[in-house]
Structure formats: structure tokens, C-alpha cells
Amino acid sequence: MPQTSARHFLKEREARQFLLEFYKKVRVNAEQLFGTRPKIEVTQTPVAEIYIINGKPVLAKSDDTLFPILIFDELLSSLPKITVDMGAVPHVCNGADVMAPGVVQIKGEFEKNDFLLVVDKSYGKSLAIGVALFDSKTMRVTRQGKIVKNIHSVGDRLWKLLRKSDKI
Fold first, then answer.
1. What pLDDT score does 81 carry?
2. What is 6-69's CATH number?
3. The model's pTM
4. Which of 3, 9, 54, 139 is most buried, by CB atoms within 10 Å?
């Protein structure tokens, strides 16, 4: 079991504010995902604050950035997707940002700074959560340089922490 320094439930007003912040970041109706009165618990870990909603760890906050974690399947399926070739997979899994030459497909419309799901070409497996450095229209014509900032990936400290425990 990972060491936690603090763990508490959010009060109703804090929960409403948190869900509003969540909506602003991902533009997905929180009520549809979590119900009308979700129980939101916050766990402090050495890696990040982890938000457990209705008993399932789904979001994390690190460096004042709130982001979905890779085991939050209900949200991941609604995020725009960036598919990378198999040569990019080990780099992305090690935390590297996504470079334009490694991208083989872009699905969905998005703006700069929106969250994206990075998946591999062969199996469609989730590799990382990233932040778009360009909007979808610009990204589709960009042929070089970084296009997605990697903020959480398979194999990072948060992933390993979540894999070690069934419940944080």
C-alpha cells in the first residue's frame, strides 16, 4: 500500500467547485460520469494528489495541473486521440513528448491545451495523457517538432503507484 500523507473527503461545496474545474478542463459533463452527488476523496501521495470518485481513482493533480489518469476508461473514450507509430511507443512510455513525425493519425477536434489520449498504432492501447500544443487543424499539417506535451504515461511514477495498489 502506498504511503499517503493525508486523505479526506471533499465537502459538498468543495466538490461542486472541483467538478466545475473538471468540466472546464475536459468539457465533459461530470454528472453523467459520476452521478449527481459523487463522493470525492483526495489522497496526498509523494507523486500527486489523487482524486478518488465513488471509490475509483480517476483524476490526479500535479504542479497545479488537474488531469485524467490512464485507468479512467469512461473519460478516455471521449478524449480526442493521437495515434503514434510503434517506433514512438517506448519513448512516449518513458515520458517523452509526442513529436509530429511519429504521429500516424489524429482523431477528433480540439483546441490548444486540451487533453489528448495517445495510443499505439498496432493495438490501440492507451500510452499517455497529453496536452495539445496546437489545435487539431494546425496539428494535422504540422510535420516536425513537438505537438503534444506528455503529462502522464504508462510506466511513470503515478502509473506504477496506481498499479501497485488496488485502491489508493
1. 97
2. 3.10.450.120
3. 0.89
4. 139
